[in-house]
Every structure is written in C-alpha cells, then in structure tokens.
Design goal:
2 copies of one chain form a homodimer.
Chain A: H1 4-14, E1 21-23, E2 30-32, E3 40-48, H2 60-78, E4 81-92, H3 97-112, E5 117-126, E6 131-139, E7 156-159, H4 170-173, H5 178-186, E8 190-195, H6 200-211, E9 214-218, H7 226-230, H8 238-244, E10 251-255, E11 266-272, E12 276-280, E13 286-288
Parallel strand pairs in A: 4-5, 9-12
Antiparallel strand pairs in A: 1-2, 3-6, 4-6, 7-10, 7-11, 8-10, 9-11, 12-13
Helix pairs in contact in A: 2-3, 2-5
Chain lengths: 298, 298
C-alpha cells in the first residue's frame, strides 16, 4: 500500500483552478485572494461512521459527498456563495488508496457543483473509525448573510421542500439549497433562515430562541415527504416524522410579508410574540411542538 | 449527562471578542469582516487518539492545546498572523461535559496566546475514539506569505531551535514560532519556510522538491536537543533523532545571504543545484540524508 505522500501527490493533481487561490494546497497553508467587497463566512461540519453514515452500507463517494453537502447546506442557510473548503480525514488503518481517492472524489464532485474548490487537507491513519471533517468558506457575494436572529412576530414561515424519512436514503443524496436560498434571500424579505438538519421542531426552535419570538406551525400545511409515510417507527405518524426526523437539508426561512409566487417556499406557519413553538391541529387546538429530533448525546 | 446543546450554550459564553467577527459562532456559519488589504491563509490539521496524543496519558487540556498549536505552527511556517479558527470534535460516547470543556479550554488558551479566536465548531459523539480537527485562518498582515517553493541554490538554511526527542514531552507543550517566524520573514531575506513536524530529513525534502533545489546539511551544526540524547531507540544516535524524529515544531527556513545576528536562526546548511538532501559528516564525506521520519501509512 502506498503511503500518505503518494496520496498527497495524487490529491494535488486533482485540484481545480479557482480565481481565489493564490497558493494552492501543498504548502503549509493555502493562500487566497479574498474579494475586498465580500464578508467571509466560515463553519465546520463533520461526518462520523455510525452516526452520519454507515461505512458498511454507504460508498466512499457517497460519504465524501455528504460531508461537502452538509457544509454547502450551511452556506444555503446563510445565503452565501460557497468559495473554498479544507478537509481532514481520519482513515482506519488498512484503508486502501482507492477508497481514500473515492472519498475525495465524492467531496470534490459535490463541491464542484457549486464552484467550491478543496484547497487544503490533512490525512491521517489510525486505529479508530472513519471520520471526515470539512470546513467551508463562503462569500457574501452581493447578498447580506441571513442569520437565525432577525425574525419578528407576525412573519411568515416557509420551507423549501417536503420533510421526513430522509434516513431511508435522501440524507446521503440531497442537493443543498444553495442557489434557491440565495434567490430567496435576494428578495430582501427574509429575516431569518436555517437549514433543516435536526428536524423542524428543533431547528425552528433555534430561530425562535435567537430571534426572541415564538411560532405556530399549521399541521395540515407541513409538506410530508413520501418517505415519511414509509417510516415504521412505532407510534409515529408521517406528520411526526416530517416534524422531527431531521437531515432533510431543506431550508426554513422567516419572511416579512408574502413571498412572490416564483420563489421556492411552502408556507407552513407564523412567528408569534408568545414564546415557544406550537403545532396548530386541524381540529383547531394548539399543542406545544416538543423537540423529539435526534440530539447528539455527549 | 447534559446534551450537546448545553455544551453549545457553554461554548458560546466562552467566546472572546474579535474585531474581525461580525456574527459569532451560534449561527450556521460565523461571519467575518476580512481586512481588504490581507491575503487569507487557510489550512487544517487534526489530532487523533493513539497517533498525535494518547488519551490515557495526556490531559484534555493538553490535547486541545496541541490541535491549536499544530495549526498555529502552520501559520508560523507561512509567516502569517493567526486570525480565527473553527474546530470539530468527535467525542467517544460517554465523554463527560467536564472533559469536553477541558478540550475546548486547551484550544482556547493556546489560541488566545496568539489572538486567535475560535469562531465555530461541530461536536459529535460516536462509538469511535477521540479526534479533533481544527481549521485555522491567517492574515498576511503586512508580511508576504512564505511558501516552500522559493529557494534557489546557494542559499543558507536555518532552524529556530534544537531538535529531536520531542516525543518525550515537547510534542504536547511546544510554543509555535509565530512571532519569531514573522520577524524572520519581515527581514525580506527568506525565500522558503516550513515548520518541522515530520523531521528535518522529510521537511527539508519538501522544500527542495517544491523549489527544485538540493541541500547539504552539516552534521556538526545540527542543534541536538537534550531530549534526543535521552531517546533509547536501538541503533539511533542523538543526531539521528534530531534529524528524523519530527514534531519539533521549530521552523526551518532558507535565506538569501546571512541573517542578521538578532534574528532567531541556527545555520545548518546550504541549498545546492544538485538535487537531493545530503548530510556532510565531520570526516568530510557526504551521505544521502534518507527519510526515516514518521510517515502516516494509509
């Protein structure tokens, strides 16, 4: 089996050109020309074997794509333009060079779909399981970043697509809503935004807490994905899967006034002055929308 | 045991203010005001249990400090000013909140020593071992970044301190040479630079390959650390430990002409037109300096 430095030589040959990159991967750090007019957005998301993927089931190309797409989805949540990424890979001892290349190609292809170049990385081999950590840099590029904290009472809540049951497969194959989120934010009506990684019940809670508002969600307006109906969790309805499953990677946003019809968005509820997130049932009553989504325990 | 979101609340309370930070950690991405006059340098380094530290021996505060200091050392290698970092932590199931806080405090303290704020992160718990991955952003801040590729034949090679035997302890406690490297680069004489993470035999090889030069190192000029003499590897002299051990985190640089005496630097050799790295022994003969340092096998 070839060593790390052969892999690094291969990696360097894979690099795609980017107008931003002054010194590419291969030195101690990459050097970028950051556009003077752009804010810099930065964040990190990892994928861990047995948590975010199952290396016995998913291909390395899918796993690589997922770590990139999770980060691209964070760009969508802030309405920024993906610019560059760096990645670290902790590879189980005995990982083949071919497998490592497939991981990288999965990341690269997912990134290239959004002009996001991989400009650096760190590869190590260990007695542990497969872990990938990717850091993404985004540019504001003409759209003011949308945070979680700008919602006010009486505003409309939208989501960009059907929810629930993503564990049946979509959590590995989703396309991050980068382009749609930037179009949505460019309307100037959006006051808060988040990507739905942990379920609407938890993620809408983040917006409410950061913005100091509450929310009411109309049960019959939630777009329930067909996959939610195929889930077999005891005692859960398809609606509950749609509300709590997570890993949908759709975007939820709060807008002032009605969004134009050509903008992607399914109206699902309203922000309120009263704190807390409530579900309005067809019968008319409001019930607290409890957080049942997946919480990473420490 | 408290969940991830309690830890995140604690993390957010720890954040130190930074003039760069417009939206701090807590949203999908942090938002930074990048100085228009600065190049952006970015890279990632991870630390893995059993490879870069031993969780049975080292404290979480030491482990956290190491992942930050490895990245700060990359800033030293490029002569940039550390600006901000994001970090991902893969925590073994059952990790206590206290332990997680200690990891973070180790990173935070090491970063604050160089005004490097942690502006984002991702924490997950899994059935695997402890892995930390940190991405650092650096600013050129008035000093042109120094790469590995600018050396020419006939230039002087310096290192910033004694080498060898760091595994006896210094690999966890080193202070990255950020300030010294910027002073060195500010002289305008430095043509290539790298931090010594993998041993002079391997790391000088990187500079030679990237610059298209060779090098000769004078055996009697190598500053051998006392720890190198305390190493007991069969058949290795202290000099060999100094040349091959790695994890010294001193800086090696190539300069045009002699460096001023007030600049940190121990003269150890010269670049040559002839390719390859050679060791000149006191007896006068040159022998190829083979790479014996630690290579991460895949």
């Amino acid at each position: 089996m070839a060593g790390e430095f052969d892999f690094i030589a291969w990696l360097r040959a894979q690099q795609t050109a980017s107008a931003l990159v002054r010194v590419p991967a291969g030195d101690d750090l990459a050097v970028l020309n950051w556009p003077a007019e752009d804010l810099l957005l930065v964040g990190v998301d990892q994928v861990l074997d047995g948590v975010h993927f199952d290396s016995a089931v998913h291909s390395p190309r899918q796993i690589g794509a997922k770590v990139m797409n999770r980060n691209l989805s964070d760009c969508a949540a802030m309405a920024c333009l993906p610019a560059a990424a760096v990645v670290s890979a902790a590879l189980p001892k005995g990982t083949s060079l071919e497998y490592a290349k497939e991981l990288y190609l999965g990341m690269k292809e997912a990134g290239e779909a959004f002009d996001c170049a991989i400009v650096g990385g760190d590869t190590g081999s260990w007695a542990g399981r497969l872990a990938l950590s990717l850091t993404i840099l985004g540019r504001s590029a003409g759209v003011t970043p949308v945070t979680r904290s700008g919602a006010q009472p009486g505003q409309r809540i939208y989501v960009t697509g059907p929810l629930g049951g993503s564990v049946l497969g979509r959590h590995m194959t989703f396309v991050p809503r980068v382009a749609e989120a930037r179009q949505i934010a460019a309307t100037g009506r959006v006051r808060a935004m988040i990507d739905l990684s942990d379920g609407i019940s938890r993620d809408l809670g983040h917006i409410c807490r950061e913005s100091g508002v509450g929310a009411v969600i109309y049960a019959e307006r939630i777009p329930v994905h067909l996959d939610a109906g195929r889930m077999g969790r005891a005692g859960w309805s398809p609606l509950e899967h749609a509300l709590h499953d997570g890993e949908d990677y759709e975007v939820l946003y709060v807008a002032e006034g009605e969004m134009p019809p050509e903008t992607l968005g399914i109206f699902v509820g309203m922000t309120t002055a009263e704190p807390g997130v409530r579900l309005r049932t067809p019968g008319g009553g409001d019930v607290p929308l409890e957080v049942k989504g997946w919480e990473h325990g420490l």
